[in-house]
Design a protein that fits this description.
single chain, 143 residues, mainly alpha, 4 helices, 59% helix, 0% strand, binds zinc ion
Length: 143
């Protein structure tokens, strides 16, 4: 199996479509909304690749998107309703958004962080060869 190295915009487009940023396979390493495989089921590329803290990076992406959304939504709401800002309804709506948005963003935060890691540390030819080796050892019933 040979996968050509994707461009940076292509990796992030794939991440936003919940595909593997490297090979474009959907679902890639996703097993469901809250579960994932440790490696892509198509290209075999591991999300860890010898690094610790993948989940921390994904959680950081999730929090950054959620906080940016709250700041922009809150700011726009205040500007639109100024000087009669309805503080209580605004806080309730933003509170609900703060609870729901991380759940909605959960799989996106993993795929976006995977693309970011591939951008910062592209896999070596050795890692790609190891990934192909790994995927060829997975029984067909698990793929
Ligand atoms: Zn893949």
């Amino acid at each position: 199996m040979s996968v050509t190295r994707p461009t940076v915009p292509l990796m992030f487009r794939r991440a936003l479509l919940l595909q593997c940023a490297w090979c474009g396979d959907r679902p890639g390493f996703r097993r469901g909304w809250f579960r994932r495989y440790d490696s892509c089921q198509h290209c075999g590329l591991s999300v860890q690749r010898g690094h610790d803290g993948f989940e921390l990076g994904a959680a950081t992406i999730n929090v950054m998107i959620m906080l940016a959304t709250l700041v922009v939504a809150g700011g726009v709401s205040v500007v639109i309703t100024y000087p009669d800002v309805a503080v209580t309804p605004l806080m309730l709506v933003l509170g609900v958004v703060a609870l729901v948005l991380p759940v909605v963003l959960y799989p996106f935060s993993y795929t976006i962080w995977f693309a970011t890691e591939l951008l910062m540390d592209p896999p070596s030819d050795e890692w790609l060869a190891r990934a192909v080796e790994t995927i060829s050892q997975i029984p067909a019933s698990n793929a």
